[in-house]
Amino acid sequence: MFKYLFQSMNEKLDGILEALPVAHGTAKQALLRQLQELREISDGMIEEWLLFEEKLAQAGKRSSQPAAASPAGSAGKLFDLPAEASESPMQTMQYQRGEGYFKLYMFAEAAREFQAVVAKFPEFLQARLYLALCLLQNENVAEAYSHLQILISLADDGKMKAIAYNALGCVNAVKGNVDQACECFRTSHALDPNFQDPVNNLKACQTEGGVLHLGVAIG
Fold this sequence. Notes:
The structure is a single chain. Helix 1 packs parallel to helix 4 (93-103) and helix 9 (178-191) runs antiparallel to helix 10 (197-205). The chain is mainly α. Mean pLDDT is 78; it is low at 68-85. The two termini are 20 Å apart. The protein is built from ten helices and no strands.
């Protein structure tokens, strides 16, 4: 997992370092923001690693203590589950790589990883939502629309459904269906009143040259 994450981070950093010397104005500011985001990701990983090392050291101390005797006939049964039963979609290598690429704004690469997760776990809606947002960023509107429709029909979580409706509103706005877009933004806001993007998008639809927000922060 870390190998692929560091590989994607290095690719992103190489691109920033190549473009930064000749960048000016808003382009330079965008590159500096991306550089800061890389720094924050790196700092967060270091912090998590230190916490992990601390827990690992504690586990080492406990392992040196005498183990309690196991009840007769029960030894090893805890580990008899088949691998498939314990596999979580969020723990797959593809999902982890997809999240890493997504955080680095490498949407084409992220879409490829999330597509693999959705193919294997079609009811894992968070991967499908990430995939739809990546497709929208890459201007693959028709496929993104299809995934959003599936997600809206299956989702029970109000926050996730709100993000999906907001993204669907962006699709309609891009296609020129302003009335449908506004209705999607209103639905999104009703589902999650704390989600500000649909409110901003509703205003953008009513303002010439307004900028749409996909709401890519999921958590």
